[in-house]
Amino acid sequence: MVMTDEKAKGLALDDFFAAARNDLPEPSGAFLARVLNDSEAVQAGFAAPAAPTPRMGLFARFADLVGGWPALGGMVTATLAGAWIGFVGVDRIDALSGVYFASAETLGTVNLLPDGDLLALAAE
Amino acid sequence: MDMAFDALSDASDEALLVLYGNGDPTAARSLTLRMGPLAFRVALRMLGDRAEAEDLAQEAMLRLWKIAPEWRQGEAKVSTWLYRVVTNLATDRLRRRRGVGLDEAPEVADGAASALDRMIDEDRAAALQLALDQLPARQRQAVILRHLEGLSNPEIAAAMEIGVEAVESLTARGKRALAALLEGRREELGYGHD
User: Fold this and answer.
1) Residue B4 belongs to some domain of the structure
2) pLDDT tens-digit readout, B33-85
3) Span between the terminal Cα atoms of chain B, in Å
């Protein structure tokens, strides 16, 4: 007998739908791996800067690391000074310091707390 | 492939997509596990070919990854967006495959049910798939989303970018066509005579 009743047809069709819902097709692991690879590749693009920064050389990166060119200049000066002191010996440091400091007679000192005041302050 | 446990299983699809767009690698894995099978399942229902379905689903997922940073929260469900992309891509493929306008496709193809011969009860799902393959793409799309994916008519309307009444019409016509296709095979499929 061929069913012609629409309600009966609907119920039968629902059985097919139910069977299909219970028989969920699963994707292969290879498919999931490809999708995951795509996701990682696209995500890596998000992290990249919009405008590529120019590549810095090793020396420039070192200079940047220690604080820029002024700091690097200070380091060079200190290094050269250390090498020079090591070469000429401690005895001759006066020769260098003489360039910066005048003789004892011209090196002025300022006493901001005259003698006695310090003791007076301490006594209070 | 051995997939790790979905650590963000409690997060919404949208939250995962935002996390992914912000560079969270765990979100990528969770979304793949959650959305990949969905995309594949719908693609397979639409196309009836496993390899082609995986290819299409991968393409749809790639579009999801790319749109993540621009995702506007609260506007659409991620799953609805994905249903739309998968079914539209599938419709395009069907159009190219058949080489005819979808509106011109016959409601029920003659002789297609012969492939259902010797089907038994546990093959009803396969029989339904064979019948689905005979439907015009838009009817197929509506029936799959309504009766196999369990979407509401408004959700289907959003996914298909049509009105709810059009969804109801497509679904009704699709079901009538399916019933007609399967009717002649009831006995072989274990329904016998009532």
Assistant:
1) no
2) 999 999 999 999 999 999 999 999 999 999 999 999 999 888 889 999 999 99
3) 46
Q: Please state the domain count of chain B.
A: 2
What are the residues whose beta carbons fall under 8 Å from the beta carbon of A22, sequence distance 6 or more?
B125
**Residue B6 placed within a domain:** no
Residues of A in contact with B193 (CB under 8 A): 1
On whether both B122 and B161 belong to a single domain, the answer is: yes
Q: In this complex, which of B61, B131, B148 lies closest to A21 when CB atoms are compared?
A: B148
- What residues make up the domain containing B158? 108-194
Query: Residue B175 sits in a domain of what CATH number?
Result: 1.10.10.10
| Closest listed residue to residue B180, CA positions, set A20, A23, A16, A22 | A16
Residue B135 is assigned to a structural domain of this protein: yes
Give the nearest partner residue to B194 out of A1, A21, A43, using CB atoms: A1
In this predicted structure, the answer to whether residue B166 has a pLDDT above a threshold of 90 is yes
